[in-house]
Amino acid sequence: MTTDATVQNAATVTEEAVGLEPVALGNGRASAQTWKAFRREPLGMLALGVLILLTIVAIGAPLIAPYPPSYGDPVLAAPSLAHWFGTDSLGRDVFGEVVWGSQQSILVAVAASAIAIVVGTLIAVVGAYFQRLDGFISVLVDLTLSLPVLPLMILIAALVGPSTGTIILVVAAFSWPEVTRLVRSQALTVVRLPYVDAARLMTTSPLWIIVRHVVPAVTPVIVVSVVVTASRAVLSAAGLAFLGLGDPNVWSWGRILYEAQQSGAMSSAWWLTLFPSIAILLLVLSATLLSIAYNDARNPRSRRR
Fold first, then answer.
1. Boundaries of each ABC transmembrane type-1 domain copy (predicted)?
2. Chain mean pLDDT for the chain
3. Residue 194, class by beta-carbon neighbours within 10 Å (0-12 exposed, 13-18 middle, 19+ buried)?
4. What CATH topology corresponds to 55-67+83-296?
5. Cβ distance 242 to 261 under 8 Å?
6. Do 269 and 199 contact (CB within 8 A), yes or no?
7. Residue 7 in this model has a pLDDT that exceeds 70
8. Which are the contacts of 119, defined by CB distance < 8 A and separation ≥ 6?
């Protein structure tokens, strides 16, 4: 009991001294305060609503629009009541393409960011806890971040072959260093705090300390990294698909742009590029605004203002 009280007191004092977010230390009341502050952010709530709407569209795509056929009629029809987003060069309904394309775009965003977050967080907390590994990890992250990402992504995707799995792995492979850099900076501070030193007196298991104390302390940074990495994954996947390196058997917003460019109708049929571009913009912008609003809401200084 005395040891537990000492650890709790050390955590409380440290939190007040360095200004760490209480939720990072497992305080449920702080989570409620963060959510309460987040609800006062109009742009954050709007961004959350847009993300929820896009997710509903992706899940309910079969109920919203039929799957785009191989061809249809009329060809290159402008937006109308019959075809809300117009038709493409093969007479397919662009609205259906955008709706079904949301599935692949969101899948890539979620899967690629999940892999990048797990790998990046694991490397960051291990390097922060075991100082002998931190120098090597720091050099590895800096070296990876200095690489020309887009050309390497194009090269790997072209060599392996276009598929959804390839895009997910390629995007994740070049996203984890940024996550590691963000989480590592916070983890280096956490492992030096008194309550972590007290935890070392309670157990000799580094795994228990990392899982029980270090990871919860960096959770707010991880949450922000998830949103930012997901938005970058959407842009990367759309860019690869626009270059013809996406999955040709699955609709995506990048594939709509690619086929518009291949048909030569990109400049004449404005609706072919407008609506998928708006969908990409909405997803990326809402994810960015959500991360900013959350970061402001979890900051005690912002809540006091």
1. 102-291
2. 80
3. middle
4. MetI-like fold (1.10.3720)
5. yes
6. no
7. no
8. 172, 176, 179
Strand partners, 87: 93
Residue 137: what residue type? I
Strand partners, 93: 87
pTM: 0.77
Task: Specify the residue for token string 């990367």.
Answer: 236
Which burial class, exposed, middle or buried, applies to 142 when counting CB atoms under 10 A from its CB (0-12, 13-18, 19+)?
Answer: exposed
- pLDDT one-digit tens code per residue, 25-45: 444 566 677 777 777 888 889
Angstrom distance (rounded) from CA 177 to CA 119 = 9
Question: How crowded is residue 285: how many other Cβ atoms within 10 Å of its Cβ?
Answer: 14
HEC readout, the chain: CHHHHHHHHHHHHHHHHHCCCHHHHCCHHHHHHHHHHHHCCHHHHHHHHHHHHHHHHHHCHHHHCCCCCCCCCCCCCCCCCCCCCCECCCCCEHHHHHHHHHHHHHHHHHHHHHHHHHHHHHHHHHHHHCHHHHHHHHHHHHHHHHCCHHHHHHHHHHHHCCCHHHHHHHHHHCCHHHHHHHHHHHHHHHCCCHHHHHHHHHCCCHHHHHHHHHHHHCHHHHHHHHHHHHHHHHHHHHHHHHCCCCCCCCCCHHHHHHHHHHHCCCCCCCHHHHHHHHHHHHHHHHHHHHHHHHHHHCCHHHHHC
Name the amino acid, one letter, at 300: P
At a CB cut-off of 8 Å and minimum separation 6, what does 61 contact? 99, 100, 102, 103
